[in-house]
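Morning F.,

Quick status update on the modeling queue. The single chain you submitted on Monday has been processed. Sequence for confirmation:
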Amino acid sequence: MSAAARLGRRVGTTAKEELRRNKGAWRDPLPAAASRAIAERIPLADLVVQVRDARIPLSSECEILRNYPPSLKQIVALNKMDLVGTSNVKAWMGYFRERNCISCGVNAHNKENIKQLLSLIQRRVSELKGADQCDNNYTATVMLVGIPNVGKSALVNALHQVGRISAAEKGKLKHATVSPEPGETKDIRSFKIGSHPNIYVLDTPAILSPKVPNVDILSKLILTGAIGDCLVRRKEVAQHFLAIHNSSEQYKKWAKLSMKDNDRLFLNGTTEQLTSSGLHMKHKNQIPTDHTQDCVVQDVRRTLFETISSFEGDVRCEDEMEALIARQFTALQEAFHVSIESEEDDAHDKVAGKLLNLFRTGRLGHYILDNLPGYIQ
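Structure tokens below.
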């Protein structure tokens, strides 16, 4: 087992122990009631779209759908495909195709991509309704189902906006509530996404399995944000990400960001020749504490490249991986402009929070955390 996998299991084990101490932290009565309501409606829907996180195509499976026969008409939508890359999504679509499951990659923030998903839904609905209803006067219901934070509400809004075709439907939009916090949707709501035939999509509350998953899956759900950062310290979660990153080839793409000493001296000399007004124009829009700025993200990427490329240890060894990660936390404190005067725990928590945000929004590259079955980690 790799050092990254071992650190992941450590995160999952810590979370599981916390859940044992606080039994209500996994599923409260509201999600349990929502699960029952969804289960009752699934057989009544014409089509089910199971939304999964493209970074964890297996770990984000909605377990409630396992109780239904293979004849259940559904599409697996691998959302957030922009965070994993087209080639990775195609590989997973091939996996689902081999299992006679219709799947697609989707990015809720890409209009053309949403049009493709809507077209797939419309074709599938027409196929299921059959030729006897080809007059297009029927009404179909599509149900979106998924675990927390896979982007269901964002998909509903995008489908609703793109699908309002007729001029009479271009009035004030009714939006599904989108939140960065998992589990914010509390009830089942209907949104129209198509005319002729009329198609309504149901946005449903996120649902988790009644049983706590194994530690490997649990660590991935925490890392991707499907479960809130409340079971494990953010620093431990960020260490898990860094272990994955350090074991990948992603950092090599940032080599051009690292300059040799002579290049730095030249740049510094050139900078000194800039006028004060020029410096003001260069930095007036920069806020050091805003880690989402391109300049800060570039510094973070450069820092990660330099710490890994200069590391002489073996990242396959857990102790040496942890030594590299400790060095990276110190270096990232400067890249994120976290005060060196802060207490270490507080400083590292801030670094971890900023780092996880950049990972979860795709600013630090593409990552698939689940392995295709048959691939040995």
